[in-house]
C-alpha cells in the first residue's frame, strides 16, 4: 500500500458508504469530513473511480455524485454503524438512531477498566461479586478473556477460581476490583465452550403463512425456508433465548405459538448438556 494508504482506504470506504446509504456525495462533504483540500478530495474520488469504473457518476447540473446504473459496492456494509457514526458527526444529516438503554444495564467504567487491564496484563482480578443465588457478596478471583454484550446486559467470559471453570459473570454485579497476583493466569485458549461452535438449524413455524415465514426468517438473516446458524457453544443459550425457543430446545417444552422452530433440537440439547 502506498504512503498514506490506510488513510486513503478510509476515505474511499467513506465515499462509497455515503453514496450507498444517502444516494449522493458532494466533494465538499468529503473535504469537511476528513478536513482535506478540494484537490485531495478530487484525487480520492478519482482513485475510487479507478477501482470501480462506472460505479458512480457526476451530475453536471448540481455537481453531485450519485450511483450509476451498474453500481456494485466493494466494501462491506453495516447500516447500524453508518447511522450511528453519521448521527454524531458534522456530515450531512441522516436518520437518527436511538438505542434503548436502561440505567441498570450500564456497567461501571471502573469495573470495565479493571477487566481490560486484567486481560492486557494477564493478571487475575479479584472482585466482590453479588450472585443472585447467594444472600451476601463474596470475593471471587477471575481471569476474563472476553466482554460479551448479549443484547440485555454486559458480562465477562472468564475463568472463575471459585467454580474452577469458565463461566459468565455479569459486570453490574461486580464491585471493588483489585489485582490478585497470588494465582496464575488461566488463558481463554483453554475455554472449550467458547472456542467450540455448534450448529443450530432453524425454520419458520409451519403454521405461518408464506409471507409471515419470509418476514420471520428475514429478521434473523435466513432464507424463507430456514437455515443454519453457527454459534459459540458458550453463547448458544443466549441466542435461543432471543429467538424465544430456549425452553423448547433446553427442556423439550413445545410452544405451538413460537414463530421459529429448531429442527435439530435433540442434537443441540445433548451438546449443551455435555458442557
Automatic annotation (TrEMBL):
PROSITE patterns: WYL (PS52050)
Domain DNA-binding transcriptional repressor CapW C-terminal dimerisation stretches: 198-267
WYL domain residues: 111-178
Domain spans labelled DNA-binding transcriptional repressor CapW winged helix-turn-helix: 9-78
Protein name per the record: WYL domain-containing protein
Native source species: Microvirga ossetica
Amino acid at each position: 500500500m502506498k504512503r498514506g494508504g490506510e488513510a486513503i482506504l478510509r476515505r474511499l470506504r467513506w465515499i462509497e458508504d455515503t453514496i450507498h446509504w444517502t444516494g449522493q456525495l458532494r466533494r465538499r462533504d468529503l473535504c469537511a469530513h476528513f478536513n482535506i483540500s478540494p484537490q485531495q478530495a478530487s484525487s480520492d474520488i478519482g482513485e475510487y473511480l479507478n477501482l470501480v469504473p462506472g460505479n458512480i457518476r457526476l451530475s453536471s447540473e448540481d455537481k453531485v455524485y450519485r450511483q450509476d446504473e451498474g453500481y456494485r459496492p466493494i466494501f462491506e456494509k453495516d447500516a447500524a454503524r453508518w447511522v450511528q457514526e453519521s448521527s454524531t458527526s458534522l456530515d450531512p444529516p441522516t436518520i437518527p438512531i436511538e438505542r434503548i438503554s436502561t440505567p441498570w444495564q450500564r456497567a461501571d467504567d471502573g469495573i470495565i477498566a479493571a477487566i481490560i487491564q486484567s486481560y492486557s496484563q494477564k493478571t487475575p482480578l479479584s472482585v466482590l461479586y453479588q450472585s443472585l443465588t447467594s444472600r451476601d457478596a463474596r470475593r471471587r478471583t477471575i481471569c476474563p478473556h472476553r466482554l460479551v454484550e448479549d443484547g440485555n446486559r454486559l458480562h465477562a467470559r472468564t475463568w472463575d477460581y471459585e467454580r474452577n471453570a469458565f463461566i459468565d459473570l455479569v459486570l453490574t454485579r461486580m464491585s471493588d476490583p483489585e489485582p490478585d497476583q497470588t494465582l496464575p493466569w488461566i488463558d481463554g485458549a483453554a475455554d472449550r465452550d467458547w472456542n467450540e461452535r455448534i450448529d443450530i438449524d432453524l425454520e419458520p413455524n409451519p403454521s405461518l403463512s408464506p409471507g409471515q415465514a419470509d418476514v420471520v426468517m428475514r429478521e434473523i438473516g435466513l432464507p424463507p425456508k430456514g437455515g443454519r446458524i453457527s454459534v459459540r457453544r458458550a453463547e448458544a443459550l443466549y441466542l435461543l433465548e432471543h429467538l424465544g425457543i430456549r425452553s423448547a430446545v433446553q427442556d423439550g417444552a413445545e410452544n405451538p405459538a413460537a414463530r421459529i422452530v429448531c429442527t435439530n433440537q435433540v442434537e443441540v440439547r445433548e451438546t449443551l448438556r455435555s458442557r
